[in-house]
Amino acid sequence: MKLIVAEKPDQGRTLASVFKMKKRDGFIEIFPNEIFPKGAYVSWAIGHLTELSAPEQYNPSWKKWSLDTLPIIPEDFKYEVVKSKAKQFQIIKKLATDPQVSEIIHAAMPGVKVN
Known about the structure:
alpha/beta, 5-stranded mixed β-sheet
């Protein structure tokens, strides 16, 4: 089974619209067919689901910074789930860790041209 992650809900619905499917909470299940013999899930990211952590999450002294402490470049970058998008993040995480899912297809940004 494959997981297809679109950028937005309408894009996910469009991708799944040509298949027999069932709408679920936060994703669409595509039933087995010629292209997806084991079926597929289609979900969406609703834009950015994560963001960089605030400077003070790396080092408490970075909460109040000055020109002397800039640039702030952590050794390892930390990310946090955007609070308003936590539910969709958990849906995608659950689908991505489903043992039936053997491949994840990134289907966002369809207008980006790759040379």
